[in-house]
Amino acid sequence: MTPAYPTRDLEGKVALVVGGSRGQGAACAELLAMRGAAVTISYAHGEEAAARTLSTLDGYGVTAEAVRSDATRSADVNTLFEGVVVRHGRIDIVVHAVGTVLRKALTQHTDEDFDLLIDLNTRSVFNTLRASARHLADHGRYVVVTSALASAMPGRYGLYAAAKAAVERLVPVAAQELAVREITVNAVAPGPVTGSCRSGANPAEPRTRSPRGRAGQPEDIAQVVGWLAGDTADWVSGQTIRADGGLL
Q1: How far apart are the first and last CA of the chain?
Q2: How far is Cα 37 from Cα 42, in angstroms, rounded to an integer?
Q3: Which residues lie across from 16 on neighbouring strands?
C-alpha cells in the first residue's frame, strides 16, 4: 500500500488513470484517491485486477470507477474521456500508464513486434494526449509514464527505446500547445520497477546498475507522478523526470 499522504489536497479534483488497474498505474490511482481525488481507472483486459484496484480506491472514501477501454484505439479513448466528463463534470488530472517492452536486437524484431511496441507505447500516448487537449480542464495536469531504459540502454531494448523516445519528444510539444490554458504536460521515466510487465526482458541485469541495490517499487513512481499532478509542480512542464534510483 502507498504510504499515508499528509493531506487531501486533491479533493474536488477528477483524475483519470489510463492503465490504472495494476502496477505503477494502480499505485498512482491509489495515491490520487488517498489525496481525495475522484478517480477513474481504465483497463484493456484483466477484470479481476481492475476490481481489486477499485476496491482499494473505494477504501479512501472517494468516487471511483473502472472502465474497460483500449488506449490503442482512438474511438475507445474518445468514449472514455467523454464518459468521465459526463459522469463527473470535468477532468483535472490524466495519468497515462500503458506500455510494454520486448528485449531483442533491432534486426530481430518482426512486423508484429513493431505494431505491438508502437501501438502500446506511442500510439496510446498520442490518443490520450489528443483527448486530454479536448477534455482537460484549464490548469489541468497530464503525466505519462515512460522509461529510463530508453536512454540508459537503448541498444539492448531496440525498438522499445525508439517508441519511448518518441513519447518524450511529444511531451514538450504538447506542453507548449497547452500552456495557454495553464495545463502542464510531463513524463516520468522509471528504471526497472518490481511487478512491471517486461515481456522478453531480463529484469535482474539492469537492476544491478542502480547504486541503490534494488529495483524500484510502483509506489516510488507514484510519488513522483503525484507531485507533478499537484499544485506545487505548477511551474514544471514539458519535462521528463527520471525516477530510477541512480541507474547508470
Answers
A1: 28
A2: 16
A3: 40, 94
Under CATH, domain 14-236 is a member of which superfamily? NAD(P)-binding Rossmann-like Domain (3.40.50.720)
Res 45: pLDDT = 93
Residue at grid coordinates 524484431: 109
- What is the reported pLDDT for 161? 87
Domain boundaries, the chain: 14-236
**Phi, psi of 94, deg, nearest 5:** -120, 125
Banded pLDDT at 204 (limits 50, 70, 90):
very low
Q: What percent of the chain is predicted at pLDDT more than 90?
A: 74
For 24, which DSSP code? H
Q: Are 37 and 91 in contact (CB under 8 A)?
A: no
Residue 142 among the catalytic residues: no
Dihedral over Cα of 233, 239, 244, 245: its sign: negative
Mean pLDDT of 112-117: 94
The closest alpha carbon to 160, from 118, 115, 215, 207, belongs to: 118
**pLDDT band with cut points at 50, 70 and 90 for residue 107:** confident
Active-site residue, from 43, 142, 157, 160: 160
At 45, list the grid cell: 483486459
